[in-house]
Q: What sequence folds into this?
């Protein structure tokens, strides 16, 4: 990790590179992409299929444990397994499949055109707002809708408004209900207000969110809790029927015990499912915000990127993202978005290749005097939360930015 410089007004990383250097840099990054794409094969296929199989085992195991959700250990085990399944399904599988990272396999099951995921955003809306808008206009003020998700001020250059005084509060709400915040964000209210989005399109997108909401409510808060309730009711009813005692009133006692046990199990299973959804939302929020909004990342004006060359696009992606350092398990759980820099440079390459690409990206940064933004999870998340709190109020200045990457053994002072 490179140390911060102390420059009050950071200079754009584009400033010191000539047009010729930008062209050469683009050729180097293109070559990295081409080498990896040419090497994709069976081991990559085995990886994504194993991730999907693991996710399904976790989901089934969690659901089975929640059949006994009335008992605290079973409820905790089920909620934990289900949280892990939802995180894996969203981050390492859904996000990356919808990016087209596995389209090269020509597998109709694991393809960006057919995949759907267990989250509030429809695949169609998310691919437009994220794959196209965000990854095309990354960190361009007024163009990148993911820059603060249109409800938060996360850069001093964003004009302050009194509504931002509440952003520490709705930051917490967004954290807990992140999937729904993203789904509403995908509607693009600016496009609606300006009339660029037709009423038919708005209706179609609202219907998509409604269908997603209905699916999650039925699955997580009705069907599976009801199955848990029925299993518990049947077991409790059978146990009551076998108890010795008077025959008079036994039928009533059986029904009462079954209803009582079933009701408790229904509530416990629904609570576990809600916990799993919230855990998934908080994790996704943390990973995504740490990859985009810590101090090291740069934002760009529309004037800066006018007539942008391919090399300029690469530099903007490189400087507008930040990595999160962690273990191999951490990177799987984060959908390999701990390598956010590599993801923004090569969004359609399989995420499992980012770790091997990273050293090559660092070498390019070192040769061209560019920053390579990286830091521990706690540091990145702390920076983001400090920014959200500070910029809720008027004013604020740019935080110091990292200098050119000098290699692991030569941090910038």
A:
């Amino acid at each position: 990790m490179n140390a911060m410089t102390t420059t009050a007004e950071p200079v754009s990383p584009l400033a010191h590179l000539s047009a010729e250097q930008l062209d050469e840099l683009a050729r180097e990054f293109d070559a990295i992409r081409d080498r990896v794409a040419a090497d994709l094969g069976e081991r990559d296929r085995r990886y994504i299929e194993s991730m999907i199989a693991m996710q399904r085992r976790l989901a089934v195991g969690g659901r089975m444990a929640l059949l006994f959700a009335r008992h605290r250990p079973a409820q905790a085990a089920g909620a934990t397994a289900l949280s892990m399944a939802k995180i894996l399904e969203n981050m390492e599988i859904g996000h990356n499949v919808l990016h087209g990272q596995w389209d090269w396999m020509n597998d109709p099951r694991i393809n960006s055109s057919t995949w759907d995921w267990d989250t509030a955003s429809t695949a169609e809306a998310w691919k437009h707002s994220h794959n196209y808008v965000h990854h095309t206009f990354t960190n361009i003020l007024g163009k990148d809708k993911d820059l603060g998700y249109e409800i938060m001020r996360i850069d001093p250059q964003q004009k302050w408004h009194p509504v931002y005084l509440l952003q520490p509060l709705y930051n917490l709400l967004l954290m807990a209900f992140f999937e729904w915040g993203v789904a509403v964000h995908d509607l693009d209210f600016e496009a609606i207000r300006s009339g660029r989005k037709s009423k038919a399109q708005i209706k179609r997108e609202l219907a998509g969110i409604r269908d997603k909401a209905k699916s999650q409510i039925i699955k997580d808060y009705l069907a599976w809790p009801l199955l848990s309730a029925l299993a518990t009711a049947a077991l409790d009813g059978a146990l009551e029927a076998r108890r010795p005692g008077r025959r008079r009133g036994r039928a009533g006692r059986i029904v009462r015990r079954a209803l009582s046990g079933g009701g408790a199990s229904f509530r416990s299973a629904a609570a576990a499912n809600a916990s799993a959804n919230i855990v998934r939302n908080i994790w996704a929020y943390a990973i995504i915000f740490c990859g985009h909004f810590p101090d090291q990342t740069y934002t760009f004006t529309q004037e800066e990127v006018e007539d942008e060359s391919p090399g300029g696009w690469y530099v903007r992606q490189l400087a507008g993202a930040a990595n999160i350092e962690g273990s191999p398990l951490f990177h799987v759980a984060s959908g390999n978005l701990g390598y956010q820099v590599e993801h923004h440079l090569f969004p359609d390459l399989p995420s499992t290749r980012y770790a091997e690409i990273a050293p090559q990206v660092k070498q390019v940064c070192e040769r061209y005097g560019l920053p390579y933004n990286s830091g521990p999870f706690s540091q990145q998340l702390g920076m983001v939360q400090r920014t959200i709190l500070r910029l809720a109020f008027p004013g604020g200045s740019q935080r110091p930015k990292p200098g050119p990457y000098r290699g692991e053994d030569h941090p910038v002072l």
The chain is about 60% helix and 0% strand. The first strand starts at residue 323 and ends at 325. The beta strands are 323-325, 374-376. The mean pLDDT is 90.
